[in-house]
Amino acid sequence: MWAAPGHARSLQFIEAEAYRRIMAGEAPATLDEFSQQLLHWLRQSYPEAAPTTLAMVENQIRETWHRRHDMIQVEDYDSFFLVVLGEAGAICLARSSNISQVFAND
C-alpha cells in the first residue's frame, strides 16, 4: 500500500516547502535533518493533513535535495550584472565591484 487519500497533498506541501527553504538558503546539512524539520513543519502548519512518515518525506524530497546546489541562485542580485560581451554575444556574470574590469577587458 503506497498511501491513503490525502497523502499526495501532504507530500506536495512538503515538496514546495523544501524547495522554498533550499532557494532561501535555509536547508540544513543532512537529508535526515531536513526531512525531520519538514515533517515537523507539516504537523505544525497543517495539523489536519494526512499522516505522513519520515521515510515518505525523505523519499519525496530526495531528488530535490540532491539537486539543491544546482538550484541555488546568486544571493544578492543587486550587486551582480549580466554582461553580454563582443559581437559573438559571450555572456558572463560580474560583480558590480568588478564591472569596470569586465568592460576594460572587452
Helices, strands, pairings?
Layout: H1 7-23, H2 31-45, H3 54-66, H4 68-71, E1 80-85, E2 90-95, H5 99-104
Antiparallel strand pairs: 1-2
Helix pairs in contact: 1-2, 1-3, 2-3
Question: What does this entry look like structurally?
Answer:
The protein is mainly alpha-helical and 106 residues long. It folds into two domains: 7-71, no CATH class; 74-106, no CATH class. Helices cover 52% and strands 11% of the residues. It has five helices and two strands. The protein has a two-stranded antiparallel sheet with strand order 1-2. Helix 1 crosses helix 2, helix 1 (7-23) crosses helix 3 (54-66) and helix 2 crosses helix 3 (54-66). The longest helix has 17 residues, at 7-23. The protein is globular and about 35 Å long. Mean pLDDT is 73; it is low at 80-106.
Write a compact overview of the structure shown:
The protein has helices at 7-23, 31-45, 54-66, 68-71, 99-104, and strands at residues 80-85, 90-95. With 106 residues, the protein is mainly alpha-helical.
Distance between the termini: 62 Å
Helix content: 40-55%
Low-confidence stretches: 80-106
Outline type: globular
**How many helices?**
5
- Beta-strand percent range: 5-15%
Total domain units: 2
Rg over C-alpha atoms, rounded to the nearest angstrom: 20 Å
Major β-sheet, in short?
Answer: 2 strands, antiparallel
List keywords for this structure.
106 residues; mainly alpha; 2 domains; two-stranded antiparallel sheet; 52% helix
